[in-house]
Amino acid sequence: MEKSLKNLIDTAICRNECDLVLKNAQYVDVFSGCIKRGDIGVCANRIAGVGNYRGKEERDMSNLIICPGFIDAHVHIESSQLSVEEFAGLAVPRGTTCVIADPHEITNVCGVRGAQYIADAAKRVPLDVKVMLPSCVPATPFETSGATLGAGDIKENIGRGGFFGLGEFMNFPAVLSADKEALEKLESAQKYDKVCDGHAPGLSGEALNAYICGGISTDHECESAEEAAEKVSKGMYVHLRYGSSARNLLSVSAAVTSRNYGRFLLCTDDCHAVHLKERGHMDEVLRVAVKAGIDPIAAVTMATINAAQCYGLKGRGAIAPGFIADFVVVDNLRDFNVQCTYKGGKIVAKDNAPLFDCSAREVPAFVKNTVFLTRPLTPSDFRIPLKGGRARVIGIREGSIVTDAAVESVRTSGGFVVADGDISKLFVIERHKGTGNIGKALIKGYGFKGGALAVTVSHDSHNLIALGDDDECLALASNELAKTGGGMALAQKGGKVYSVPLDICGIMSSAPAAEHIEKSERIRALAYSMGVKEGLDAFLSLAFLSLAVIPHLKLLDTGLFDVDKFCFVPLEADG
Which of 79, 212, 389, 515 has the most other CB atoms within 10 Å of its CB? Predict the structure, then answer.
């Protein structure tokens, strides 16, 4: 260490030659909030300084802009449906050099071992993956997940070197009621001085005060500028999110001012493989932020040093002496077209392609074959009894994971619901422990007709979720996923079934990204041709309909759940 420190100091003061110099660079100074010029000198994996440097290797950066490496401040890598390696192969070429990863999804399927799998796979790629220990597995005590992490599990694991902090605390009612188990989890994080992420949609006033007093410092679930402004004013960091399904950046960006932008971060939360390939990762979030009216340098600051300071990422997030040499070279601060990405002073991606091996080389047996149904499902399993003519119906919102709670007149035949008009049947089928649970509900606004969709990605317990208007097709699609070990399936009337396997815990694929994307696009195109509305993601939007910590009405394997009342409600609305 002493030798490397001496070398860095000698290089900074020009006694030694730099290993690399980015000559004639314009760079974003996130500390001063402006563009500056100079030669960026690199010694080993650190920045020696910015000034007039010479190096063993020199690269001319004229007419380009250098940004610190982008940091995704909150992401579930599993939602890309790719292995960690293949995710990095798409994200790093877009300028992402670090992610705060909450492996909540895989942990719900196979416990702490799943989170450790994410951490181990990340060691094989040039992407810093800071793995949070999921705090709420399952997200609520009302559903069936593949694993449970109690206060004892958090206490046992949070101090280990493999976990960076405590993942989003979704069970906010437990915090507000000072539930003993919730408090023990939070106290364990505080004992080891770990950051604790929040998840508190709609909280304000005294309830928000209480939530923050639990030691929770961030939130990514704001639905309005007013909500974001209150949370910032009370000391929280607020994520502006723009991913494949949830996009509160546009509704919250008005809260950002020249005085408070230091408290905002940028993130994707959930970003599908197709989205990553075609539209980008943090580069797209930056483009959207600037188009929304956020100053470009402020936006870069949110995507770099703000995230680093929030999460205690020492030496990351800026172009300054002693910082890790993570750079993104872009053409301008409007389009953020990434020319190349440097990680630790080495070029790791260029021209939108990785310069490293991103294949999933080691997939342990315990993440395979995780779909367990008690028996093959039959069409009769998908009948929904309804005595009266009115029912509670889940209403879907485009571009949001918030759902509406409506009451609708529903057509029945022989005492059972008939999917009609814009109303479809919705089911959540337990697939971890063989309980045989099947939650049944109705949904309005998805648009799909003439068959069934099914997927084993359903936040957050990742049971099998299916939607459709034909009972035989619903059985075919669901049984197909039991055969493949999980994935996405579509069944058409007449018996045709199409599927895309997700062999890692039923939520991720070990296949190369290009192969998975091709198959996913094919089945998505078919779903859209059968009526799925363009403002929805054909399968990812389906996956959020069982997320019982996001208002207002959701479906669990155990029944229809009113998130506002935090209790189960009957489908029947008469009387």
Answer: 79
